[in-house]
Amino acid sequence: MHGNKKTKIRFGLPPIIGGYLFPKIAPDLINTGLMPQLETIEAGSAALLDQIKAGKLDFAVLGASGPLVESDLHVVQINAAPFVIITRKDDPLAANKSVRFATLAKRQFITLSEGFVHTRAFAWFEQRHTFSPNIVYRTGDVPLLKRLVRQNVGIGFLTRIAINPDDRLATLAIDDAHQPAFTISIVHRKDRVLTPAMKRFESILKSYK
């Protein structure tokens, strides 16, 4: 029993999902005594997926642009959120609740860099229209992307869960039909033998489904 208490739970968590999920699960982790056992690794979902497959992580919560299907992994989807356009609150677009992607041909975009789920989702919209979006800046830093939008450098493309009231930004739904959604899933390898502590941890994660 003493050994189990010291066993680390290696947990992969992308920054965007971490900002949304971790404050929700932290009280339960503290109350169950699991917080000291948690070894959190932050990286993009693609990198964490590779680490899970290689056995370098016990669990990960991953984002995807649609349902995550991996034959060697146990996958439980716990949430889904739309991708949205973000603008300054005084931008003319902000007067609307939604926008069609086709109407944004003349706007400047700030997007997340390669390695984020958003890249694949943005490509989906790009491939379905007759224009190439004018991307003026790519960044791996979500807070920087938001600051640049507030400074009127361009409009942004993010999942809704990445937006908080403190950001002071307008959020517009995208009207295009059959668009991808940002899905959040708990994953671990099917051949991973879960300790009692790992099972408690998995139960806490699933409680937010």
UniProtKB/TrEMBL annotation:
Highest taxon of the lineage: Bacteria
Annotated transmembrane regions: none
SUPFAM superfamilies with a match to the protein in the record: Periplasmic binding protein-like II (SSF53850)
GO cellular component, one term: cytosol
LysR substrate-binding domain ranges (all copies): 5-206
GO process annotations (BP): regulation of DNA-templated transcription
Name under which the protein is recorded: LysR substrate binding domain protein
